[in-house]
Amino acid sequence: GLLVVGDVVTDVVARHRTPLAPATDTAAEIRTLPGGAGANVACWAARSGCPDVRILARVGTDRAAWHEERLRRAGVRPLLVPDANAPTATVVALVDAAAERTFLTDSGAALRLGVGDWSPSLLDGVYHLHLSGYLFFAGTSRETARLALVTARERGVPVSVDPASAGFVTELGVGRFLAVVEGADVLLPNADEATLLTGLADAADAAAKLSRHFPLVAVTLGAAGALVAASGGIIARVPAPEVRAVDTTGAGDAFTGGFLAALLSGADAASAAAAGCRAGAQAVTALGGRPQEG
Ligand code: ADP
Fold first, then answer.
1. Residues spanned by the domain of 257
2. Which UniProt keywords apply (predicted)?
3. Domain contains 191
4. CA of 81 to the centre of ligand 1 (A)
């Protein structure tokens, strides 16, 4: 199976129709949705046909059961560590009439994933490990993610990493990020992250450069699709299906889930990227970061 080590997050999306002001906006529509980059990748991989997908994550006791239920319904086996001392990670997204978004985030229990939560036996029956980049931004979860990566490599289990966000990579430092993900087999950045990691403005140049350090690199380009690089050169350029975008939350996670499901089923990297683009395009047509139920 595929093991994802990552973050499970509650997304609270509030749409308001007027500019935000210190008053009660009774016209607001507020939805609570399951999210988190790691959990979204796991759900999209399962939706894309990957068998036996599991996720290891820490959640608060406040919403552990709610998240478990939603992961199970999406076909993912939840390995959630309940934390009585922190709430489940929560992101509040304020979306205004012009679709401008403001995010307020509380990483809560997610980044408290500790080395004591890891065990090599978590890799029993696992043939691929995916690490959500968010884990790398707090000491405790970073140490745990690194330990998981090293254990997987010792066992010959390939590892993929998604850098999460350019802002977080900047905060951590590019050198530090590259050092901590050293040894990963697949890197899945978006164009901004690829540029940040290499200092190269052109996404194709950045992808090619990254592929000298990581055996397989797929860089996502939003509506323009994705690039795949290996051994220092571009090996595929894949267009994204044309769709009407409603909410781009989780597009990158959907790409990663679709890409990994295809790759693990034996597809070549170019076909895997095409599968990733199909999942990404599907994700932007609906609200939230998870596949639609049913
Ligand atoms: P991230 O969400 O990590 O920034 P991207 O914005 O690059 O990632 O999107 C990931 C993938 O989702 C793209 O490679 C593409 O396949 C798909 N996608 C994103 N935005 C659109 C769009 N407007 N139309 C069609 N596909 C899209």
1. 2-6+36-86+108-284
2. Kinase, Transferase
3. yes
4. 31
| Ligand 1 atom with minimal separation from the 240 CA | 16
ipTM confidence score: 0.99
Q: Is 289 in the pocket of ligand 1 (CB under 6 A)?
A: no
Query: What's the average model confidence in pLDDT over 167-179?
Result: 94
Give the Å distance between the CA of 43 and the centre of ligand 1: 17
Tell me if residue 102 falls in helix, strand or coil: strand
| Bridge partners (DSSP) listed for residue 130 | 4, 160
Strands 53-60 and 2-5: parallel
pTM above 0.90, yes or no: yes
Within-domain flag for 50: yes
Q: How far, CA to CA in Å, does 105 sit from each of 66, 91, 93, 191, 288?
A: 19, 4, 9, 23, 16
What is the sign, positive or negative, of the torsion defined by CA atoms of 266, 276, 44, 215?
A: positive
Residue 58 lies in a domain: yes
| Position 287 confidence tier, pLDDT thresholds 50, 70, 90 | confident
In one-letter notation, the amino acid at residue 193 is E
Q: What is the CATH number of the domain that holds 171?
A: 3.40.1190.20
